[in-house]
Specification:
By secondary structure, the protein is an alpha/beta fold. The chain has ten helices and 13 strands. Helices cover 41% and strands 23% of the residues. The strands form two sheets. Strands 2, 4, 5, 6, 7, 8, 9, 10, 11, 12 and 13 form an eleven-stranded mixed beta sheet that branches. A two-stranded antiparallel ribbon has the order 1-3.
């Protein structure tokens, strides 16, 4: 297709590039995490599906460093657009900037610290392209939880396991709105969605420093269904030991997440008569109680498991001790019987 000139506001960010109409816009948000951004670039470049544009949003970080890295991948990624925010504007503003700086039918957020399996775009784009009796607005894949640790100049993976929402199972077939109102059901790295749905919703809420993806997902699912594929094609990376810029927002900013979980739920309930929250307000209110019940039940199960982990070995030791005593006592008892 003919190139489309991307025009961006001078206030707050810079960069003007030509862009063709790609099928998928891959948005990567980053700030001074060049090791992570390099890994994200390799993840994007390895995709078997090639009809996409990679939009890198540098949210107030070093511009020269980002440009230098991106230039290394211009030959292996079909198209690249770079957006530089002169100051940090937050994750959701970065998402909106990247989306507005691109033209595409589908959108996905690939943060700088997460990765994909090579067929993620191929599988998810094909699903949304296929004719369906249910007009899904988006699709997610199963997620692998990756525990890792930062060293001076590299990331070391410690463990991998299937990821699922807290106190819940991974969605089957499609995401349940009632479940999403309890707790977020998926990470952005796993979610490909239609631009038309994004535009209908008015984008991400830039007033939220965290949990903006959950708020967006709630509004999205209130209007459009989201399919859930069983393949593990998205990798959600966690660095529990990192508290600096290389930490996860969900971990390094744990207290912020706890506070904003309450703030967001309160706001949705207060504004339940507005169109954006009308369908989810009551479910979000009851979802908090459900989460507390599940958390309590999980705590009881954890306590029981810990007790069993202690009692079973203790019982075995007691049984072994009893046998040892019996063995030593047998000669003494035999002598007494004489």
């Amino acid at each position: 297709m003919a190139p489309i000139k991307i025009r961006m506001s001078i206030n707050g960010y810079s960069e003007v590039r030509d862009s063709t109409m790609a099928k998928v816009a891959v948005i990567t948000r980053t700030k001074n995490r060049i090791i992570m951004l390099s890994r994200a670039a390799r993840s994007v470049a390895a995709q078997t599906y090639r009809d996409f544009v990679w939009v890198v949003v540098n949210d107030g970080g070093d511009q020269t460093e980002v440009d230098r890295l991106v230039d290394l991948y211009r030959g292996s990624i079909p198209e690249i657009v770079v957006v530089h925010h002169e100051v940090n504007r937050g994750m959701e503003a970065a998402s909106n900037s990247g989306i507005q700086a691109s033209q595409s039918e589908y959108i996905v957020i690939h943060d700088d610290d997460d990765t994909w399996e090579p067929t993620f775009l191929e599988r998810t784009a094909a699903f949304l392209d296929a004719d369906s009796k249910i007009p899904f607005g988006g699709v997610i894949t199963a997620i692998t939880h990756v525990d890792e640790e930062m060293t001076d100049n590299e990331v070391v993976i410690r463990a991998r396991k299937p990821w699922h929402p807290t106190h819940a199972a991974y969605p089957t077939g499609a995401v349940q709105l009632a479940d999403l109102c309890v707790i977020n059901q998926f990470a952005p790295i796993a979610f490909l969605f239609r631009r038309s749905a994004y535009e209908e919703l008015g984008g991400y809420d830039e007033s939220l420093p965290v949990l903006g993806d959950w708020e967006f997902n709630l509004r999205f699912l209130a209007r459009h269904d989201i399919a859930a594929l069983p393949e593990f094609l998205a990798n959600y990376h966690h660095r529990p030991a990192s508290t600096n810029s290389y930490g996860n927002s969900v971990l390094a900013g744990h207290l912020s997440h706890v506070s904003y979980d309450a703030i967001l739920r309160n706001r949705i309930i207060r504004h339940g008569d507005e169109d954006r929250y009308r369908l989810v307000a009551k479910l979000v209110a009851s979802g908090r109680s459900t989460l507390q019940i599940k958390s309590h039940a999980s705590g009881v199960v954890d306590l029981a498991n810990r007790l069993l982990a202690y009692l079973v070995p203790a019982a075995r030791k007691a049984k072994s001790l009893k046998r040892a005593i019996q063995r030593k006592a047998q000669p003494i008892l035999a002598n007494l019987r004489r």
